[in-house]
Specification:
The protein has about 55 residues and is mostly helical. About 90% of the residues lie in helices and about 0% in strands. The protein is built from three helices and no strands. The relative contact order is 0.07.
Length: about 55
């Protein structure tokens, strides 16, 4: 088990930006699927459209 933890720590240290991206993506998905109300979803759709236009 210690070896697994060492490997994870090494990956996390080398991939801080990727780890943050994955964490935020997961948080966003869970919010949308579990907590968002209709108003939230409408605002999120606007954010998505704005983001698509800026890509």
């Amino acid at each position: 088990m210690a070896k697994y933890t060492e490997v994870n720590k090494k990956w996390n240290d080398k991939n801080e930006a990727r780890k943050l991206y994955i964490n935020k993506r997961s948080t966003t998905k869970n919010f949308i699927l579990d907590l968002a109300i209709e108003d939230d979803l409408e605002q999120i759709e606007k954010y998505i459209e704005e983001r698509r236009n800026n890509l």
